[in-house]
Structure formats: C-alpha cells, structure tokens
Amino acid sequence: MDNRPREIVVISGKGGTGKTSISASLAYLSQDCIVADCDVDAADLYLLLKPISIERQDFYSGHIAEINQEKCAGCGICKDLCRFDAIKANNNAKFSVEPSSCEGCKVCVEFCPEKAIDFPERLCGEWMKSETRVGFMVHAKLGIAAENSGKLVALIRSEAKKLAQEKDKKLIIIDGPPGIGCPVIASITGATDVLVVTEPTLSGIHDLERVLSLANHFRIKPYICINKFDLNLDMSEKIESVAKELGAKVIGKIRYDKLVTKAQIEAKTIVESNIPSAQDIIDMWERLKVN
Ligand code: SF4
Ligand code: SF4
C-alpha cells in the first residue's frame, strides 16, 4: 500500500492568476495538512497565513569566489580570465569579486598564482518551518539575485514531506511557481496531483496547454480551476474543451469577485472572508477531496 501523503501542487502558466489565494483557501479548508510555499522567487503565501517561525536554516547552493585581500598581489590575472566580468580593481591596487556577477566557474581560483582566492559555498537564502492558523508551513526566502530556485523548491518539498510524516498528515498543499521552467518541474515531479489555475483569456488557454503537457509528461493527475470564469464565458467553454482534449478535468470554476482584494488587504483567505467566491472554492474543495 502507498503510504505517501497526497501532494496537491497548485500551479499556473503565468503569475497573477490567483494561485496563492486559492492555495491558502484550500489549506484553510483542510485544517489538517502541511502547507508549503514553493513559489520561492516570489513567495507571498506568508502574507495571508502569517507564519510564526519555529525553525530556520540557511540555504547554500553553488560556490562563489572571494579574494583574500591579504594574499592578493594585484597581478590582475583573475580579472583578465573572468568571462563574466565579475572581478573589479580596488583603489588599493588589489582586486575583489562582485558577488552578484560571479557564476562560480572557479577559473580564477585555479589560476591565481598566489592562491589568494577562496571558493566557499554561496549563501542563497533561508528556509523555515512555521506554525500558522491552518497548520504547519514550510517556506523560504531566496536572497536577492540568488539562483538555483529549483534546488530550493526540491528542498522545501522534501522538508514538507518529512514534516507530514512526523505529524502524521495525509495531505500536503503546495503553492507552486508559475510558468513551466525548472522550479515548476521541481515542484511537480513525483507529486500526486496538480491543480492548474487559469483565467478565461487567450493567453490563459495557451499557458494552460503548456502546463498540461508538462503534467502529462510527468504522468501527474491534472485538475483545472478556471478563476474569474464569468468574465468571458465563451473562453471558459473553450478552456473546458481544451481540458477534455488533454485529459484533464475542470474541477472548479470561481466567479469574479471584487471583494477578493479586500480579503487580501485584511490578510484573510477567501474562504475566511465569507465573500461570494468563497462558496465556489468550497465546492471545488469538496470535489477535490473525493477525486
Ligand atoms: S590572480 Fe590572485 S593575486 Fe592576481 S589579482 Fe587575482 S587574486 Fe590577486
Ligand atoms: S569564479 Fe568564475 S565567475 Fe566567479 S569571479 Fe572567478 S572567474 Fe569570475
């Protein structure tokens, strides 16, 4: 028997479709899950769930060159060799590395005649385990200009799974990254379900096709939620037929609701706010539970 917790990853072809508000609402309705924010490049689930951190850890990924000013003889060989123009001359006739430009290729380290260049791991951000009013949450803060968000997404998922096991939770709800790039792949690989949030626009259909082909490629059960479906009923119908063609199920249709913004300003999930669209999310949740 498969004892893995169910892992529902909420994704979208692009940002701004309401993915985070929907993830937070589903977690609120569950009240018995681990919630994880894997949209690490623009993490904002914390704004709605107000987590209180119980554990923090640094996130290191890759390496960075650092010139030891005591040892540097100022020959400039490293600057000439750096293809990324990351090494600058200082006023004191020595050199230093601009961290945001260093790609960690190690060429300067290898060729410095004085062995003056260190190559430590790069601190890219931090990740946290927290408590929220909907349950435990795993989330992260990626440093400015830090890369390797796919690696951080994989780490967050792995910690969420460990926490689910520790707390005996059968469900993990993940706010995934938008798009179809490396962080999205890291967020859905091996997951049980994806919930694709889309909007009734032409670009929404295009994005949906891209995301569904990705889910199909990884053989993950795809569900679709059409957010603000009533803004363009023709387009919503088209989305339903595209979904059918691609073997996905439209599991929720959420009406346009101008009170969503008010709920966000009050840092409440949609379902806590008892606004008209809350019922659409509750209906979708009921269907998701039994599918
Ligand atoms: S190659 Fe080494 S010694 Fe020469 S400037 Fe660079 S760090 Fe200094
Ligand atoms: S590690 Fe590579 S990118 Fe970074 S400073 Fe050295 S040569 Fe440039």
Structural description of this entry:
With 291 residues, the chain is α/β, with parallel strands linked by helices. Helices cover 37% and strands 27% of the residues. The protein contains 11 helices and 13 strands. The protein has helices spanning 19-30, 45-49, 77-81, 107-111, 149-166, 182-188, 202-217, 233-245, 259-265, 270-273, 276-290; strands at residues 6-12, 34-37, 52-63, 66-67, 87-89, 95-97, 117-118, 121-132, 135-142, 171-178, 193-198, 221-227, 249-254. A 9-stranded mixed sheet has the order 3-8-9-2-10-1-11-12-13, with helices on both faces. Strands 4-7 form a two-stranded antiparallel ribbon. Strand 5 and strand 6 (95-97) form a beta hairpin. The mean pLDDT is 92. The structure holds iron/sulfur cluster (2 copies). One iron/sulfur cluster is lined by residues 65, 81-82, 84, 86-87, 97, 102-108.
Structural class: alpha/beta
Nearest-angstrom radius of gyration?
Answer: 23 Å
Distance between the terminal alpha carbons, to the nearest Å? 18 Å
Low-confidence stretches: none
The tally of beta strands, per DSSP, is 13
Instruction: Tell me the strand percentage band.
Output: 25-35%
| Main beta-sheet strand count, sense and barrel state | 9 strands, mixed
N-to-C SSE string, H for helix and E for strand: EHEHEEHEEHEEEHEHEHEHEHHH
